[in-house]
Amino acid sequence: MQLSNNPLNKNIEKQLSEMMYGILAELRTPEEVKMVMNDVLTEGERMAILKRLGIAVYLDKGRSYEDVKNNIKVSSATIASVAENLGNSGWQEMIKRIKAEEWATEWTGKISGGIKKIFG
Q: At residue 95, does pLDDT exceed 90?
């Protein structure tokens, strides 16, 4: 993705940012978010976001740079860039939500398995 060298007027940038974040906040389902993101972002932009998320998840789980590089197919510089920002509140919120979802999925499976053992 190539950005224009012409900067956006700061007032217009602020208005557009508020508009975009407001719209995203009002989307109710993953399907709605996917629909919007598929139309708004290019395939390359979506892949860049997905790879950054993958890097963050792998690093949070203690994976090595080499493991991240081989599995996510990114450069060491990209890994370092994500790693440098992983302590920021936005990344921390993402990681917290991912961990909560993983925990819920794990316990749902354990509870379902226990019920099946008890009741057949």
A: yes
This prediction has a pTM of 0.79
8, 17, 111 from 12: Cα distances, Å: 7, 8, 51
Listing DSSP states for 91-116 in one string gives HHHHHHHHHHHHHHHHHHHHHHHHHH
Q: For residue 26, what are its two tokens?
A: 């009002």
Q: How confident is the model at residue 113 (pLDDT cuts 50, 70, 90)?
A: confident
User: What is the phi/psi pair of residue 8, to 5°?
Assistant: -80, 140
Dihedral sign of CA atoms 43, 49, 53, 54 in order: positive
